[in-house]
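WARN no homologs supplied; continuing
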Amino acid sequence: MLHTLLISSTLALLGAAPGQAQVPIQADFDASQFQGTWYMVGVVSDDQAFLDSRDHLKMPVVLVTPLANGDLALKFGYSTPDGGCQKADVTFTKGAVDGQFSNAALAQTDIRVAATDYKHFAVLYVETQKGGVRSVWLQLFARAPELFPEGAQKMQQMALQVGLNPSQGALLPKSGAVELAERDPAGSPCPPQRAPALPPPPPA
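OK structure emitted
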């Protein structure tokens, strides 16, 4: 449930909504610079399901890979209650503008990378409409599993712009999935764990 909520909040932005033209898209978005490992360190939303469950959410790891056709492949890594790690694969389908994507599988369109410096932070603007209820989301991504000041400032500015209140936000604590990714040279979500070394056999 919480895993699905985080994926949905990260991906969905339904188009053609009033005021949407005010939401920026990163100028000259470069998918090759956007690729690699990110951590979702913060979320702000007026979605009631998020507000009800935000105290239980943990920081996911996201590995972004650009595809030859312009899409983005994303692998999410989430911690499980038993201390393990669970993966979810998602595809962002390239839209008409660089930095704008969609995800038909989740009935979500017009995903926007609103701001990023590629090296430290990225802010995604998200809008969902389910059962006739419209919700707005902002997600703050960072290259390291910690809050980056400039990214936090951008997110705060955009929150005011889209009508969100700081009290509707949450900073996501580090999780076991993050610790696994930090130990993996590739920074992959849920990297395979090495089997413990076996002791040498006793001498004959």
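The chain has one domain: 2-17+24-181.
OK
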